[in-house]
Design goal:
This protein has about 400 residues and is mainly α. The protein is built from 16 helices and 6 strands.
């Protein structure tokens, strides 16, 4: 493709070799925009309703996000690829990871009944606004399916030798299978959270998030470069450790995140009763009285209102979405805020923070002696922190 991308209303040149994070994201989004324009035109020619359907899918793909999976894949590739290798040749493969990610998000939001994503209505809510809930749910499933097919199509446009393509496809397929397996376990856990455990919550984190956010994108990028057996173990260790830390941060944000920053509904994990590592640790560390209160269901329809903060016993302050519910009296905590404070009082959030730090240290240490290009080592070391200390 041409050595440029659209960013806003201007054209920005993209370096052919090492690119900044900002330019890399611009390049991936430019690749996606070009590809999706062709797909929309093809469906528009069949029926205008299909064109509108495809435009909704495009808008979900292009609605921002951290683009973290293409970023890890890029540095997996750049860690081996020489400085003369142009980034354009791998852009279709990097873009395919974002299409796969959109598939996962759309289906995950539907399963969780989430109202917003990235500060906008979720796919099923968008469609339901026009033709009702059943139509919205059905259309969201189809949007997710379409994005997964598009991911395959875009990946196929990457100029690779047959042997390299075979290895890349193998890792891509493994990544998809593990993400779906992790999602199933996540849904299963919500059916009987009391039978879950910290160990099983971490198993979900490894499959649902770590493997398809960090581990396999890194390995995918390594395969794009033709592979290097000396890096396999280092990337696996780094990917699992940093990927788990990424999910552990999500666990904290799912209870204490500010929806104005996360773009997701407040206290969503408390609403769905998701048995995250945070929740399982809280149960494990709770006193008998605390455990009884944690086991009590939150009344259906309890609201989550403004943003405040909850202080744990050790003095640490955790932001909480939804601390005040005027219906219960000014200054009183609503049921979600009371539950979040209780979790903080068990010490579970502080323990999760310790687990995040330990995993980041483990991941960075795995790269110390790995035969990787210095710029890639530096970038991945920085990413280990920025991906796990984020506010959204």
């Amino acid at each position: 493709m041409a050595n440029h991308t659209l960013e806003g209303n201007r054209v920005e040149t993209i370096p052919r070799q090492l690119v900044s994070q900002r330019a890399l994201i611009g390049a991936v989004e430019g690749t996606l925009a070009d590809f999706l324009a062709c797909q929309i035109a093809a469906l528009d020619a069949v029926d205008p309703a299909l064109g509108g359907f495809a435009r909704t899918a495009r808008d979900l793909v292009m609605a921002g996000g951290k683009r973290i999976r293409p970023t890890f894949a890029y540095w997996g590739w750049r860690g081996v690829a020489g400085s003369a290798e142009p980034v354009e040749q791998v852009l279709p493969a990097l873009g395919a990871l974002e299409l796969m990610h959109t598939f996962a998000l759309v289906h995950d939001d539907l399963m969780d009944g989430s109202a917003t994503r990235r500060g906008r209505p979720t796919a099923h809510r968008l469609f339901a606004a026009h033709h009702g809930t059943r139509f919205g749910d059905s259309a969201a499933i189809l949007v997710g399916d379409l994005c997964l097919v598009w991911a395959d199509q875009l990946l196929a446009r990457t100029p690779l030798s047959p042997s390299v393509l075979l290895e890349v496809r193998g890792r891509y397929d493994r990544m998809r299978i593990e993400a779906i397996a992790g999602q199933y376990l996540d849904v299963l856990g919500e059916t009987d959270p009391r039978s879950w455990s910290v160990e099983r919550a971490l198993l979900v984190a490894r499959h649902k998030t770590a493997s398809y956010t960090v581990q396999w994108p890194l390995g995918f990028g390594l395969a794009l470069a033709g592979g290097d057996s000396r890096l396999e173990e280092a990337f696996r260790t780094y990917g699992l450790a940093v990927g788990e830390a990424f999910q552990l941060r999500d666990d904290l944000l799912g209870v204490y995140g500010d929806p104005a920053v996360t773009g997701k509904p407040a206290a969503d994990d408390l609403r769905t009763g998701k048995p995250t590592t945070l929740m399982m640790l809280a149960q494990q560390m709770a006193s008998e009285a605390q455990l009884a209160e944690l086991a009590a269901p939150i009344a259906p329809g309890a609201s989550v209102a403004s943003v405040a903060s909850i202080s744990s016993e050790d003095g640490a302050t955790t932001g909480l979405a939804g601390a005040v519910n005027p219906a219960e009296g000014s200054g009183e905590l609503n049921p979600y805020a009371r539950r979040a404070r209780l979790i903080a009082e068990t010490g579970a959030p502080a323990r999760v923070e310790e687990m995040i730090r330990a995993r980041v240290d483990e991941g960075v240490a795995a790269l110390a002696d790995a035969p990787i290009r210095p710029d890639a080592r530096a970038a991945l070391t920085e990413l280990a922190t920025t991906a796990t200390q984020r506010p959204a």
